Structures are given as structure tokens and as C-alpha cells.
Amino acid sequence: IDDPVQDNRPRILIMGLRRSGKSSIQKVVFHSMNANDTLFLESTNIIIKEDFQSFIDFHVWDFPGQLDFFDPTFDTNAIFGEYGALIFVIDAQDDYMEALTRLHDTVTRAYRVNPNLFFEVFIHKVDALSDEYKIETQRDIHQRTTDELADFGLEKVSLGFHLTSIYDRSIFEAFSKVIQKLIPQLPTLENLLNILCANSGIEKAFLFDINSKIYIATDSSPVDIQSYEICSEMIDVIFDISEIYSKRTSTRNDSGMSQSIKSAIQPTTDETASDASSLVRLHNDMVLYLKGVNRFLALVCLIPSDNLEKHGLIDYNFQCFKQAITDVFDLKRLSIERRLEEDI
Ligand code: GDP
Would you say 266 and 295 are in contact if contact means Cβ atoms under 8 Å apart? Predict the structure, then answer.
């Protein structure tokens, strides 16, 4: 569909050698596939362009490893020309020299087409490596890549390195970091979350993209992995419960989300969106609180249970927060539409 507003979405390209784990990452993050089931995935051998419908509206292009995408018949402008990030997956359990050559080649060429691309290296499958070896591998890959790029005069390239595995939350963490770089409104979102936390006695708050369980923003207190895990599991739990007990017969749709949770978190009108909410008391006197923001986003917070006495205040503050989020993204949409009108 040629929708000019939609085409303004940031694009995420996933590349890497064959068997590096590209399809597995995509299935686990965007289709809620169980990590163990990826053992039976066919390796990517065609370009898969996936339009993943989420709040972030990004495209994922999964490129097969062995393909020579710099073949003159390929339109490199169309592939690299847009605002977005290129994720290069390296299998850390394998000898990675060939992958590094390919990475350097890809970065140098793509940078020439689009110097604004973010390059993100996923040092992947690190679940089998010891902590020491992980750090050493990351240091080695970082060093070799920056040296190689410096030789080509490309010191300014924006490069990020992430240790990832589909067997834990690290792959989601890495995606969160990549996506946060692509959201121009991030400082505003963080600010709004800070204000919400400070005024409502919330200890930690994450704004999640429901479909992928990637958090797109959090308040500025440090992220500790346990709080993050429990908050992201909350989305899973609600999903499972609603799948089992919802009145509707729930079937997973393409995005891996059941119809039932969609109807809970994606109400038909914006006025009822705030209805989606859930609360779990933890044994350590903390409360996990989930609130639907709109059809793509949910806020998950950790609140000391004493502070929950001010339930009304929290709910009121949340309403203000929700309105502010809607305003922030509406402004962006309006400015894109205005720009398009001017272009016509
Ligand atoms: P592709 O060719 O790049 O799309 O690679 P695949 O996604 O087909 O993955 C190749 C193999 O790597 C599969 O057997 C996956 O189960 C395995 N794999 C993917 N990610 C991980 C990971 O994080 N850890 C481990 N141990 N294996 C992984």
C-alpha cells in the first residue's frame, strides 16, 4: 500500500552470514516463537521484507547471508537510502573472520549511500560462551571493526555492539537500544516517564511495544535486568491468561498476538483504551501494574505497595501521561503530513 505517511517509518535491516541467526531473531522477537523451535527453521535464502505492524512501524528486511546485494542490479539507494538501522548478526560460536570481512564491506558501502544509517553489530549466540570470553569477543570484534573502518577514513560511522542470544532477554534489550536510537521523541518520552514516576511513587516504569515486547522508553533510573524481565513477563502472563480464559476464541494472528489480548489492550475506541489494566502483588511488597496506553503501547510499572494507597492519584496521573503521549505522536504525524502537503 502506497501510504506516504507510513513510508516515513524507520527501517531496520537485518543482515549477516548464513546460519548466523537472522531468521531466529526475527521469529523470536516479532512472532513470539519459542527459542527452541528455531532449531527447525529453514535458513534465509531469499530477501524477506517484513512490514511489522507495531507502534514503531518499522520494516525488517532479512537478507540472506550469501547474497551479493552489491550486484549492480540491486538498487542500493532503495535498500540503504532510508532513515533507519542496519543490524549485522555475527555468530560468536563460530570463527567470525569471514563475518567481519563481510561486515566491514557492508558498512563501508552502505555508509556511502547513507551516512545517517545506524550500524548495530549483534554478537550473537553468546549463550554458550563464558562471561570472560564474551567480553573478550566483543573487545576483539569492536577493535578490528573500528581499526578497519579507520583505515577507510570512516571514524564517524555510528556503530553499536551488543551481546545477544535468543535464549534470554538480551535480544530484546538489544532491540530496545536500537529502536530507541530511531525514535526522535525519546527525550520527551523519558521526561514524561520521569514526571509520572516522581509524582506517583512509581519505582520503575517501562513503555512497551505490546507486539514485540520491546520497551521503547523507560524513566531515567538505572535499568536492572530483573525489573525489566519481570515487567516484560507481565505482558506474557496477561497474554497467556487472556488466551486461556478470554470469552473469545483466541487465535494467534500474524504478529503473534491473540485476538483476545488485542481486544483487551487494543480497544475499538481510544476512550476505552485506558480500560486495559492489570495488577499483581509480588512477595517483596512491590506491585506490578500494567496499563494499556493505546493499541500498540502498554505501560508496565513497579510500585511499592504502600504507594498504591494513592491509587486514584496514580490513575489520574496516568491519564495525563496517556494524553501527553498521544499529543507527542500526533504532533509528529501532523508535521509529516504537513511536509508532504508542502512537497505536493
Ligand atoms: P539465518 O540463516 O541467519 O536465518 O540463521 P537461522 O535463524 O536459521 O539460525 C541458524 C541456527 O542458529 C538455528 O539452528 C538456530 O536455532 C541457531 N540459533 C539462532 N540464534 C541462536 C542463539 O542465540 N543461541 C544459540 N545457541 N543458537 C542460536
Answer: yes
**Number of other CB atoms surrounding residue 42 within 10 Å:** 6
d(C-alpha 288, C-alpha 104), whole Å: 44
Nearest in space to 302 (alpha carbons), one of 291, 287, 292: 287
Q: What is the pLDDT of residues 192-222, one digit of tens each?
A: 999 999 999 999 999 998 878 889 899 999 9
pLDDT value at 31 more than 70? yes
Ligand 1: distance of its center to the CA of 21 in Å?
A: 4
Q: Ligand 1 centre from 83 Cα, in Å?
A: 27
Contact 230, 289 (CB under 8 A): no
Partnered with residue 329 across adjacent β-strands are: none
Q: Which of 241, 317, 225 is nearest to 280 (CA)?
A: 241
- The verdict on the CB of residue 35 being under 6 Å from ligand 1 is no
**Which residues does residue 299 pair with via DSSP β-bridges, in sequence order?**
207, 291
Residue holding cell 519505582? Answer: 203
Q: Is the CB of 20 under 6 A from ligand 1?
A: yes
User: What is the Cα–Cα distance from 74 to 59, expressed in whole angstroms?
Assistant: 18
Rounded to two decimals, the pTM is 0.80
Which class for 52: exposed (0-12), middle (13-18), buried (19 or more C-beta within 10 A)? buried
Distance CA 170, CA 23 (A): 16
State which ligand 1 atom lies nearest to the alpha carbon of 128. Answer: 26
Map grid coordinates 505522536 to a residue: 329
Helix, strand, coil shares of the chain, percent, nearest 5, are 50, 20, 30
Count the neighbouring beta carbons within 10 Å of the beta carbon of residue 108. Answer: 16
* Long-range contacts of the stretch 132-138 (C-beta < 8 A, 24+): 134/92, 134/163, 137/92, 137/96, 138/163
Q: Which residue has the cell 503501547?
A: 297
Q: How many whole angstroms separate alpha carbon 38 and alpha carbon 56? A: 25
Higher pLDDT pick, 342 / 88: 88
Q: In the structure grid, which three cell numbers stand for residue 289, read together?
A: 501494574
Measured in Å, residue 24 CA sits from the centre of ligand 1 at 5
